[in-house]
Fold this protein.
Amino acid sequence: MNHLLQKWKWPLFILLIVFALVGCSDMTEEGKAGKKENNQNYPEDVSENPIATITMENDQQISIELYPEIAPNTVANFISLANDTFYDGLTFHRIIPDFMIQGGDPQGNGTGGPGYSIEGEFSSNDFTNDLKHERGIISMARSNAPNSAGSQFFIMVADAPHLDGDYAAFGKVIDGMDAVDKIVEMSIDAAESPTMKSVTIDTMGYDYPSPERVE
């Protein structure tokens, strides 16, 4: 009897370890899935859309209503960066009349970001986003890679339907388009790029989750 117990002792021990590891792996995957699902579904609990306010160095302001129901992770990312004062002191480094103004790059030349990227919430990247790139819309800039957006964003000064479905639009200017138009009129020389004094968010009392990042 003792011989039989000794014979089966190690195989049983190894099986127990394997089952334990599989169980831990499943729990981890479930945890990840749950976190992703919670982050995607949080707009169901948002009673009022957040408002972002961009205050320029000349104290002109641009108020933007953000749409978490359209691009939840993009909105969460923008709010997170703004709350961390990431945008304060950055410029609109790219200004194209009759098209858009682009900012949010810590390098000031179109090559910088927050050190991570997020998934592109637009239709050609398998996300439902029907928001059109019309005058006043705010959307995320990116490289050719669909999941390469980070901190850079652009505000439309004219309609650009060719961008629809390929960039993550996530809000719209509700006040201050005159300030946007003023930026378009400014010099676009690097030394004179219009500077954002601050970007603040009124979350209407909702505690937004941290954005999901692309590893």
